[in-house]
């Protein structure tokens, strides 16, 4: 096994940019799953952790390398956890951020602030190889609330609708470096890096 090289099992360019910055302290050579294969596994599991494992296993098998996958999304308590594991395709078309945001605004139309609490969830799975029986798992949460209209142009996905109370800004108004210090993904990577350093 080559432990100096890792494949990132995502096809979302903006998510990949965040993952690469968060992984940089380890000084590994980073490869992308798109270099090895065109297919994507179906993200059909009911949990973020299981979907992250599906993606990591697929990338490890395609590349022969250690693999890291991120499965993430936004949970709104008043919507019983939706968009949840379906965050990327909430609006009907996979990866259509504008449609996803429109649907979320509609779902919360007229709801008071007290019913707009939300949290971003990030599950990371890291496999040393495709048949690794001891996957490393890391979770990160980021609490905020859903705005009534989009704000800001940074980031991706639901960032323009996610209000970060202690920053007094939406996630899309944050400097990318700040988002990468405090986000769900930042928290999950902090935990994963600690595990990788012990490996
Ligand atoms: O599966 P991969 O290829 O990694 O890319 P994806 O975009 O499909 O990623 P997910 O399946 O994990 O779906 C996560 C969705 O949740 C949203 N999301 C996740 N992290 C986010 C973040 O940091 N900011 C805003 N939205 C985010 C966004 O809509 C993503 O498309
Ligand atoms: Mg996906």
Report on the structure:
The protein has helices spanning 13-23, 48-63, 97-107, 176-182, 184-198, and strands at 5-8, 29-32, 66-76, 117-127, 136-146, 162-164, 169-170. With 199 residues, the protein is α/β, with parallel strands linked by helices. It has a seven-stranded mixed sheet with strand order 2-1-3-4-5-6-7. Strand 1 (5-8), helix 1 and strand 2 form a beta-alpha-beta unit. Helix 1 packs across helix 5 (184-198) and helix 4 crosses helix 5. The protein is globular, with a radius of gyration of 17 Å. The mean pLDDT is 97. Inosine 5'-triphosphate binds next to strand 3 and helix 3. Residues 10-12, 15, 43, 70-73, 87-88, 95, 97, 100, 120, 155-159, 171, 183, 185 line the site of inosine 5'-triphosphate.
pLDDT below 50 for ≥5 consecutive residues: which ranges?
Answer: none
Bound molecules: inosine 5'-triphosphate, magnesium ion
So how many helices?
5
Q: How far is it from the N-terminal to the C-terminal residue, by CA? A: 13 Å
Average predicted confidence as pLDDT: 97
Largest sheet: 7 strands, mixed
Q: How large, in whole angstroms, is the Cα Rg?
A: 17 Å
Catalytic activity: dITP + H2O = dIMP + diphosphate + H(+); ITP + H2O = IMP + diphosphate + H(+); XTP + H2O = XMP + diphosphate + H(+)
Binding site for substrate: 10-15, 72, 156-159, 179, 184-185
InterPro entries: dITP/XTP_pyrophosphatase, ITPase-like_fam, RdgB/HAM1
Pfam families: Ham1p_like
């Amino acid at each position: 096994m080559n432990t100096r090289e890792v494949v990132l099992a995502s096809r979302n360019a903006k998510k990949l940019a965040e993952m690469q910055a968060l992984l940089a302290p380890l000084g590994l050579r980073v490869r992308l799953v798109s270099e090895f294969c065109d297919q994507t596994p179906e993200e059909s599991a009911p949990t973020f952790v299981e979907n992250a494992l599906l993606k990591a296993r697929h990338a490890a098998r395609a590349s022969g390398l250690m693999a890291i996958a991120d499965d993430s999304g936004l949970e709104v308590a008043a919507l019983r956890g939706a968009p949840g594991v379906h965050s990327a395709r909430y609006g009907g078309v996979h990866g259509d951020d504008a449609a996803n945001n429109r649907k979320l605004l509609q779902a919360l139309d007229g709801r008071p602030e007290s019913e707009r609490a939300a949290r971003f969830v990030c599950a990371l799975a890291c496999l040393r190889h495709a048949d690794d029986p001891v996957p490393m798992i890391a979770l990160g949460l980021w609490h905020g609330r859903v705005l009534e209209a989009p704000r800001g142009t940074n980031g991706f996905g639901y960032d323009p609708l996610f209000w970060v109370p202690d920053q007094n800004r939406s996630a899309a108004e944050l400097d990318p470096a700040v988002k990468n210090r405090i986000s769900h993904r930042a928290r999950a990577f902090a935990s994963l890096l600690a595990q990788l350093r012990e490996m």
